[in-house]
Amino acid sequence: MQEKVAQAPASASGKGPMLLALRGVGKIFSNGVTALSDVDLTIREGDFLSLLGPSGCGKSTALRLIAGLATPTSGLLDWRGSSSFDRSNIGFVFQEPTLLPWADVFDNVWLPLRLKGVSRAKAAPVVMEMLARVHLTGFENAVPRELSGGMKMRVSIARAMVTKPRVLLMDEPFAALDEITRFKLNNDLLELWQDERFTVVFVTHSVFESVFLSNRVVVMAARPGRVFREIAIDAPYPRNEAFRTSPDYAALCRQASDVLIGAINSTAGPHHDGH
Amino acid sequence: MTAIEEHALTLDPEEARRVRQERLERIGRWLLPLAIMILAIWLWDRICVWNDIPKYILPRPGVVLQTLFDDAGLLFSSLLVTLKITFLSLLLAVIGGVGLAVLFAQSKWVEMSFFPFAIVLQVTPIVAIFPLINIYVDNQTTKLLLCAWIVAFFPILSNTTLGLNSVDRNLRDMFKLNGATRWQQLRYLRLPAAMPYFLGGLKIAGGLSLIGAVVAEFVAGAQGQSSGLASRIIEAGYRLNAPRLFAALILISFTGILIFLVLSLISHLILRRWHESALKQER
Question: Which positions fall inside the ABC transmembrane type-1 domain (chain B) (predicted)?
């Protein structure tokens, strides 16, 4: 992959205008579990925001609330003064690739456009361009089972991005991949993000991944799921392999890791029965 | 990938043994049943000769084969009648089964309300229902069709319903996020997802529709109203024409096997690119 040396670094700390604010958002499931409690969170345009936390901290629930796949029990989502947001402005990448197994790569990426009534011929240039962006040119006629895990995830990202959404929501998309593949997909995702300047909300349980990718890491704690602390990752973009092995990166990881441990211990409370 | 494996020149003993084993299995799969079949036919022939069994009790295989040729005109025209009922009822079973399954898929309430009726229809022996059908329906073909349909539609209905309801939850969310209409979700997600289940049901229904057709003909044929293979069998039974009885029986068996093979082939062709059941095991 070519380094993009000439490119101007994106704003590191996300100074863009506000896109969405979660105000006192809580979610209680019918089984009585409090998934989220009193979450305040502001997402700015152009942010790469990671939700980092142990399992059960409600980070996936938060993502589903933002996507409109679930509604909050209390509080509200403020999309710049409106309580709702045009769904076509949201792209979602699930933990599994979630592809149609009977459809080839082209048809899978075409699907969101097809559902909006765009014909195959009209969609073709957009789909092919998107496939090129995720480095899958030449695979448009392959069916998912013929692809590796990383390639399937690339298809999934292409499908989420084919409608040019302004917000990309990602729910632990690379958790099931091996490290080499994950690093590569991290790099490619950052490249895509810098080119297109969309907003990303990225759920992960990996400190290293969240620090490498984001300009903001929001650490969450469990039982009840809540925001524990936010860390600004003030390292310039573009970030590449050199950044991954730099002392700066290591220091930021240590900082995030300490906060995460604090979050985990706060869950354990006086009983010290955490992890 | 496979090309490299095939061109590998030196195989260790374990791999070589496995390749040999696979080759043997591939041949054996066809050869063994064939050999057993030939042996069984030979034994049948010998038993007839050794025990001097008269041909109106147990005809020799050669005599059955001769009858098959001699009575070909009669038997095959009857087979055609039976086949017509079989395929028409299978077609109606597909339309009815899939149609009802799609209806059930629209709402859990509809499914909960009507599925028990389908089960009642399925578990009641068709032979017991036929006298009723005989009273209410005049047309002979309609009678037979209705019978065969009742027997054949259930596996398609139940399998397709299961398939339509077995869609991955994330995929459903994905369609919802993209603002898919109910119809789009059915067309692009639920129907393709139900395809392997439907084809499984179709394979069962294919055999059942033949059974349904023959059973219906039997019941109807007892009243001398049918011209299908079953009535040939009844007729031959009355006349102690065992060779023709056997010939008709063989014809029905072969038809059943053929239907199964054709439906299996169709299923394989549709699923071969993506579904686990149609994939060759790689190790």
Answer: 79-267
